């Protein structure tokens, strides 16, 4: 690697996603009947890329990587932005702890 390249750790240390990143997200707009389980078992995922990624491909990959014990429901909220609802708290905690 050249002198000008940064490590992933350096890039991650400077990553800052906040209100100024153009995310206008209101989860209250999702009808309650679409949510299958407790709203507290929901997370929002965002792919940080300039390219739009196929929702079904991401869903398939994440299910394969996470290998949840119970069902996971995913809804596309916008380009590269997803609502992910877990059927069991254990799966949610494992994903948050171990990452994608």
Number of E-type strands: 3
CA-atom Rg in angstroms: 16 Å
Query: What structural class should be given to the helix and strand makeup?
Result: alpha+beta
Number of helices: 3
Mean pLDDT comes to 77
Instruction: Name the poorly predicted regions.
Output: none
Shape: globular
- Main β sheet profile: 3 strands, antiparallel
Spatial separation of the terminal alpha carbons: 26 Å
Spatially, the strands of the biggest sheet line up as 1-3-2
- What percentage of amino acids are in beta strands? 15-25%
Describe the secondary-structure layout.
Blueprint (H helix, E strand, L loop, with lengths): L7 H6 L28 E5 L8 H12 L5 E7 L2 E6 L2 H10 L2
Antiparallel strand pairs: 1-3, 2-3
